[in-house]
Structures are given as C-alpha cells and as structure tokens.
Amino acid sequence: MADQLKGRTIFITGSGGVLGSTYVRRMLEQGARVVASDLPGHRAEALKERHAGNPDFRFYDLDVGVEEQVVEIFQRILKDGWEPNVVLNNAAITGEMLMGAGKPFPDFADTTVADFERTLRTNLTGAFMIARQMDRDIVGKWPATLVNVASMYALNGAHHPIYEGMPFKNFSAYGVTKAGIHGLTVWLAGYWAPRKATVNTIAPGAVFNGHSEEFQRRVSELIMAGRMAQPDEIADAMLFLCSAQAGYMTGQLVNVDGGFSAW
Ligand SMILES: NC(=O)c1ccc[n+]([C@@H]2O[C@H](COP(=O)([O-])OP(=O)(O)OC[C@H]3O[C@@H](n4cnc5c(N)ncnc54)[C@H](O)[C@@H]3O)[C@@H](O)[C@H]2O)c1
After folding, report:
1. 19 in ligand 1 pocket by Cβ < 6 Å?
2. Which of 130, 151, 159, 177 could bond 123 through an S-S bridge, CB–CB 3.0 to 4.6 Å?
3. What is the pLDDT of residues 200-220, one digit of tens each?
4. Domains of the chain listed by start with CATH number
C-alpha cells in the first residue's frame, strides 16, 4: 500500500538502532513526516547522513532518561513547525549494551543495582516521561496515537539455555521493563480514550542482527516460523499500528514473533 502514512507526523525515540532505522526508512517511503531522535553518537550520525536533504525527515538529540530533555522535546518540535500525531517509545537498553569492553555479561547473582536501575530508567521511566509529555503537549489537541515497544520476553520468560556459551545473555531488567511497558499501555488506553488518543504495544520477536549460526539454530527451534525475523517484518506491523487503519485499536498487545508466544 503506498502512502499508508500520509498525514502522519511520527516522533520516534532510539531511531538509530536496528529496528528504529528500519521504521524511519519505511515510514518515509509511506509518506510520513518523521521526527527521529536518539542519543548522540555513531547511530545518530549514520541515520542523519542516510536521510540528509529529505524534507520529510528531521532529527533531534534526545536521551529519554533525562527529564529536562524530555520535558522540552515536543515544544521544540512544535516550535519548528511540525505537529506529531504518532509517538513511538522505541528506545531501550538491551542486555548487550550493558557489556563494557572486556567485561563479561553479568550473571543474575552479579547484577548490580546500578545496571538494573539504569535499564529501568531508559526503558520504563523514559517511556513514562515521553507519554506524560505527550499528554501535556499533544493529547486532546488533535487525535494522536502512542506505540510502546515491548518484546517476546515481556510476558514470556527467557529460555536461558539458549544463551549458554554465548557472549550475551538475557538480562533480568530487560524483561521486567518490557512487561511493565504494557502496564503503561493499558493504563493510558482508558485514560486517553475521552481525548481521542489511542495507545498500543508491539512485542517483536527475535530479530536477526548478525547472530551466530548456533544462536540462530537454538532460538529458531522455539519459533513456529522456524527462523528469526527480518527488521522489515517487524516494520510491517509497526507501520500498521502507526496508520489511520489502526484507529479502532487501543490497549492491545500485538505479538510479531513468528508464533513464539503461541506455543
Ligand atoms: N531486536 C530485537 O530482537 C528486539 C526484539 C524485541 C524487542 N525489541 C525492542 O525494539 C526496540 C528497538 O530495538 P533494536 O533492536 O532496534 O535495538 P538497538 O539496540 O539496535 O536500538 C536501540 C536504540 O535505543 C537507543 N537508546 C538507548 N538508550 C537510550 C536513551 N537513554 N535515550 C534515547 N535512546 C536510547 C540506542 O542508541 C539505539 O539506537 C527496543 O525497545 C527493543 O527492546 C527488539
């Protein structure tokens, strides 16, 4: 479908990552205006370079864990002349990001409160602050929608044996935040309904990003489709949730996981 997102101005956090950058590309192809944001760094630079000169693309530096930055973000965008009607809470610390150079991935017993709380701050408090700012600056002014990003490991436990011998493991705080974010979705759905704003959660499955053959084999055995997802397959569902066609959906959790959660 061409122009699926015409008339949508989409604000997205963590947009330089594997999925975020795919969403940005696909949204622009479908006629949206995209307000991308991320931490400053190489991901942000690559994204800006890729879409430089596209009049439907703008980029703002944003750390979703820093309240002063979140409080200002929509006012900055509005002052620059665009009115976001779709917001994506996509930024997250995944377990991999907690591994320092040469530092092994911590076992549960060695997980520090600092690493746990840092993950909560970005994945959950950050998402709350974005939603709260959306409430203050957008909700009720024009019809709007929020998409929160969870994971196949939100409401299902991780299969710890598949991580044995891998350089990364499944991190406890990650699943905690991804379960929590759907709590935010269902809470807000009823709260915002009178002001014509909807909110849903997408729960992506395991997305291929250069994983080893052995890891692909292990995880694929848990997935009905028998393989990991391509980023564009998650984007297909994300674009629908951002579109006018999803207007009658609110408070829902949409699994895009090749059947992982149905077994
Ligand atoms: N890739 C997967 O297999 C998968 C599966 C399920 C869910 N998800 C979820 O999808 C979303 C995108 O994942 P991805 O695979 O693209 O991950 P990624 O690590 O490639 O991208 C995450 C992005 O978030 C940004 N980020 C981290 N901390 C931030 C902060 N404090 N403020 C702003 N931005 C910050 C990073 O800079 C990065 O660009 C995440 O919410 C993730 O949990 C991914």
Report:
1. yes
2. 177
3. 999 999 999 999 999 999 999
4. 9-262 (3.40.50.720)
